[in-house]
Amino acid sequence: MAFDSIDRSFDIYISTVLNGRQHMYRLIAIASLFLLSTNLYAGDIVEDKSIGMELARDIATETIEACRADGYHVSAVVVDRFGLQRAALRDDLASRFTLEIAERKANMTVMAWVNSGEFAKMRADIQQELNHIDGLIVMDGGIKIVSGGYNIGAVGVSGAPGGEKDAACAIKALDKLAERIEFAIE
């Protein structure tokens, strides 16, 4: 009889310990599921680094000023990393068509993430097909804008006598604003 009560006490003790461990294991399992589920939804909100309006405006202005200094009347369009227009300026004597061409050059740069002139040289085999896509044109004059290692946008230029001259104006503008661009992303 004495052994029966010790046996029963021991069974109760073991059952309490096991229930406690089971409870602990359940808590660990629930916590693990919670942590895993938060990772499953981690991509629901995406942060991106893209060019702001003020910097885009200043790049477009400096690009036109650089071309004016060389005697050319151009349009400059700055797009963000998604190809959305952030700034567009047309010099007083530039043709109205230069705005569209400049934007298409910038979009080409964003699509390929290389300057449009480089892309034209690398992929001449598909140039005609890409020129039929709305919003793109494979011509020199689109230059990517990089800040802190991030592609934040592109500037497209049109109106100078040759795409290499368009690109040169954009490069001068980006060089002039290089320190501001580099530290735009903290």
For the largest sheet, list the strands in their spatial order: 2-1-4-3
The CATH top-level class label of the largest domain: Alpha Beta
First-last Cα distance:
78 Å
- Tell me the series of helices and strands, N- to C-terminal: HHEEHHHEEHH
| Silhouette | elongated
Which CATH-level-2 architecture of the largest domain? 2-Layer Sandwich
The helix count comes to 7
Helix content, binned percent: 55-70%
Give the tally of structural domains: 2
User: What integer value in Å does the Rg equal?
Assistant: 30 Å
The secondary-structure class comes to alpha+beta
Describe the biggest sheet?
4 strands, antiparallel
Work out the strand percent: 5-15%
Would you identify the CATH H-level superfamily of the largest domain? Answer: Haem-degrading domain
Uncertain stretches of 5 or more adjacent residues: none
Mean pLDDT: 87
CATH fold node name of the largest domain: Beta-Lactamase
Structural overview:
With 186 residues, this protein is of the alpha+beta class. The protein has two domains: 2-44; 53-182, Haem-degrading domain (Beta-Lactamase). The chain has seven helices and four strands, in the order ααββαααββαα. It has helices spanning 2-40, 53-69, 97-112, 116-122, 127-131, 163-176, 178-182, and strands at residues 75-80, 85-90, 142-147, 150-158. A four-stranded antiparallel β-sheet has the order 2-1-4-3. α2 (53-69) packs across α6 (163-176).
